Amino acid sequence: MTALFGGGSGQSNQQKQITTAQTNSGLANLNTGASTTAEATSALQQPLDFFKALLSGDRNTIMSALSPEISTLSSQYNTGEQTAEEFAPRGGGRAATLESLPFQKAGQIETLVEGAQSKGATGVTDIGQLLGELGLNEQSLGLSGTGTAFNEAQAAKENAQTQQTAAGSAVGSLIGLLVGALPSKTSGGS
Question: Across the chain, how many H-helices and E-strands are there?
Fold first, then answer.
């Protein structure tokens, strides 16, 4: 009887295979997206921690986060100080240069610290946006694949229902014709 009314689920074996493949592909994209997002989150954790330290406002935390830059800056000033001591002629100019170097160094370190919070805010925002976009893109791919499979299965089901309705209507019309073609019994009588 099922064959008369257009089949069970409305999908041929080939359509079922395609739907299964699309569903599997969508699920694979969801899983890949979750994995990729986890890897990206892990990879971005260290820069995120750095920017959070800058954003903290705690001077010791900021100094610790900036220690590589401060170390490089100190090394440059130490080299400048050694050069001035060795090669500058003795006198007032040399003394003034050597005396001003620590203040210049402190000023540049202070500039680094002062700019740290704005760099921290920008960095945290940028990384947050990156993580959000990555997660949304991967999830969108996965949902798109599973959504396509669902839509095709739903269309096949609706097609089967339409076929069943048409078959039922045809059977009803045929029964109506047959009933109408039957001789009627009339009572006549003597």
Answer: 4, 0
